[in-house]
């Protein structure tokens, strides 16, 4: 199906409304979630030991995300059961756990970078150059083309659960995409 905004006035209106909702509602709500989770971790996870907090967050985030990758197929079978309760609980729990694990992973790396390299112009440029170089390399490297969109996960969770493998996890965490690829 063609969703091009130039196709019709209705398609253009849907395109504009979709982008406005994303920018004005969904984007700020995602920031609230991330900031709230991040700050709660600052307060409760080794608040007086930045290195321990960073390493713990990084370990929980990375190990947790790896576990989620390997649990996706069994979870998809469980969610496809006859019970709507499985779907509703699995749908929400999976989304919140995945979101929290992503925040942990990002926070762990961020806190460790701050701890070991400090916050300076040189460390910022070094991080930027390493990050942009890695992103360029990974875009050129052969990876599975399924992209993970955490912001639209609620709509596509069953499809994603049955199609994602470990290669997708690394691309999605390093380079999140704004939308799910259309098949």
What about the largest sheet?
none
Portion of residues within helices: over 70%
Count every beta strand, where a strand is a DSSP E run of 2 or more residues.
0
The number of domains: 1
> What percentage of the residues does DSSP assign to strands (E)?
under 5%
Number of helices: 6
Model regions low in confidence, pLDDT < 50 over at least 5 residues: 142-158, 160-183
Radius of gyration, taken over Cα atoms and rounded to an integer in Å: 19 Å
Global shape: extended
The topology string of helices and strands comes to HHHHHH
Average pLDDT value? 74
SS content category: mainly alpha
Record keyword descriptors for this entry:
6 helices, mainly alpha, 183 residues, single chain, 0% strand
Structure notes:
With 183 residues, this protein is mainly alpha-helical. It has one domain (29-174). Helices cover 77% and strands 0% of the residues. It is built from six helices and no strands. It has helices at residues 9-44, 50-79, 84-117, 121-140, 153-163, 166-174. Helix 1 (9-44) packs across helix 3 (84-117), helix 2 (50-79) packs antiparallel against helix 3 (84-117) and helix 2 crosses helix 5. The longest helix is centred in the N-terminal third of the chain and has 36 residues, at 9-44. The radius of gyration is 19 Å and the shape is extended.
Write a compact overview of the structure shown.
The chain is mostly helical. Helix content is 77%, strand content 0%.
How do the strands and helices of this protein lay out in sequence?
Elements: H1 9-44, H2 50-79, H3 84-117, H4 121-140, H5 153-163, H6 166-174
Helix pairs in contact: 1-3, 2-3, 2-5
């Amino acid at each position: 199906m063609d969703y091009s905004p130039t196709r019709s006035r209705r398609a253009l209106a849907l395109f504009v409304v979709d982008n406005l909702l994303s920018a004005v509602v969904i984007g700020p709500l995602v920031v609230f979630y991330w900031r709230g989770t991040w700050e709660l971790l600052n307060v409760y996870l080794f608040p007086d030991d930045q290195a321990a907090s960073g390493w713990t967050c990084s370990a929980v985030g990375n190990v947790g995300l790896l576990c989620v990758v390997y649990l996706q197929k069994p979870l998809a079978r469980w969610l496809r059961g006859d019970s709507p309760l499985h779907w509703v609980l699995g749908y929400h729990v999976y989304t919140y756990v995945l979101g929290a694990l992503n925040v942990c992973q990002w926070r762990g790396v961020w806190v460790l970078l701050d701890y070991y390299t400090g916050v300076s112009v040189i460390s910022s440029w070094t991080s930027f150059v390493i990050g942009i170089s890695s992103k360029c390399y990974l875009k050129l490297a052969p990876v599975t083309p399924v992209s993970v969109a955490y912001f639209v996960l609620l709509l596509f969770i069953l499809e994603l659960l049955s199609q994602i493998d470990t290669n997708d996890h690394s691309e999605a965490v390093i380079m999140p995409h704004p939308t799910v690829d259309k098949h």
